[in-house]
Amino acid sequence: MKKVLKHSALLLTALALVACGNSKKASDNGTASNSNFEVSVKDGMYVLPKDEDSNSHYLALQVEIKNNRDKQFSFTSHDITLYNEKDEKVEPIQIYESDSKTKFMSYGDSLSKGKSVAGYVVYEVDKDAKYELHFAPSFYDDVKENSKDKNDVAIKVDPSQYEDNIDEAKEALKKYVDAVYLDGENTGGASNVSFTNDKSQIVALEDKKSDKKSDDKKSDDKKSDDKKSDDKKSDDKKSDDKKSDDKKSDDKKSDDKKSDDKKSSNDSDVITNDVKADREEFIKKFIESFGKGFYNYKPSDSELRTFAEAYIKANAKRAKVDYKVKTYLPDYAVVYVRPETIDLDNLNVYELSRKFYNENKGKYSSYSEAMKAGEKYILENAPSQFDSTPLDTSDNMQKEGYEIKMTKKDGKWTIDTSSKNYNLKDMARTFRGGIGY
């Protein structure tokens, strides 16, 4: 009987010890303290550490620790642990990101008397579960030896109370891409670039600003050299039409400016980049690079700009762009951008050349003039293929897409457009149909 009582006593003792493992009552107001230190959870947010599974959830808790002792002590992030409802320990994830200025708890943190330190500690969590955050400094040897119950404080943590704004990085970058690469307006002045009408016929438009002589002389055939009054009426009508056209043009420019200002205002709500300047630089590079591909005909800047903006409009309608967050921290993000765009290398230049030959066979007296006219014809008529040219991805792009870096300050994102950001340069080239670096 004594043996039974003895074993029963041991069992009760063991159960008592197990129950005391994490029996300390956790604070539910975000702060816990004892005579040696005070711990507070100041804030929290969901993040995505680099190289972690995007299907999992990672909660970054901003923890502040204050030293109430009369001497210094040290601790690591592993002393700040999370326990789930099954009393299972969740180890923190170490964050090493040189591009982020966010303070994360790391090895070697120490606190002098009366001092405090704050930083983020990251854990993989279940959003629907409940947790307790425990702080028990492992280097706190003198306190552990003298009073073990003073070496642990606990705070209740409810992951559902914290915001998950990871996708905001995608949305901010999408606004930038749409504004700079996919929101073109025809502001070049030239209008000689062709388009496809409802009957899928090639329609060549007249360049109203060109000083070159027009091959179309239908208007000259209709004029009567003997009727000055008719000429005067015609001139008067042209003058009235010009005034009307100028007014419409001015009204359109005003409307376009208002539209651009509205877009710029909306973009500035979430991004700090000067999207107007970046878009102009994007088109400038398009014009410069595309113009170098002509050997006989020398297009004007207006012609090249009109081609570029016609391409941008077609791309805006057809391109497929996927966004996926790779890294997301309080002040820094990396987003994969995977665009499928109209590749200009896929234009059927042979078909355009054949049409030009059939329409102009025997018309030119020299090879150079024929080549010059042929290149001009291709420039004017190539946009008719924008709606049918297959979309393509760049061979220089990794499988997930281009890695675009972003930083966040005061609630706004800044896309890294520095000269060292080669991923952005390659992405811009893709949005130009494979033209320019």
Explain how this protein is built.
The protein is an alpha+beta fold and 437 residues long. Helices cover 36% and strands 22% of the residues. It is built from ten helices and 17 strands. Strands 13, 14, 15, 16 and 17 form a five-stranded antiparallel sheet that branches. A hairpin with a 3-residue loop joins strand 1 (31-33) and strand 2 (37-47). Helix 3 crosses helix 6 and helix 6 (275-291) crosses helix 7. The longest helix has 41 residues, at 228-268.
Unreliable runs: 1-21, 184-228
Helix content, binned percent: 25-40%
The overall pLDDT average reads 80
Number of helices: 10
Structural class, by secondary structure, is alpha+beta
Beta-strand residue fraction: 15-25%
SSE arrangement, N to C: HEEEEEEEEEHEHEEHHHHEEHHEEEH
How far apart lie the N and C ends? 90 Å
Q: How would you sum up the major sheet?
A: 5 strands, antiparallel
Task: Summarize the topology.
Layout: H1 2-19, E1 31-33, E2 37-47, E3 57-67, E4 73-75, E5 80-83, E6 89-90, E7 109-111, E8 116-125, E9 131-135, H2 141-146, E10 153-157, H3 167-181, E11 195-196, E12 202-203, H4 218-222, H5 228-268, H6 275-291, H7 301-318, E13 320-329, E14 332-342, H8 349-360, H9 367-381, E15 391-392, E16 402-409, E17 412-415, H10 422-431
Antiparallel strand pairs: 1-2, 2-3, 3-8, 4-7, 5-6, 5-9, 9-10, 11-12, 13-14, 14-15, 14-16, 16-17
Helix pairs in contact: 3-6, 6-7, 8-9
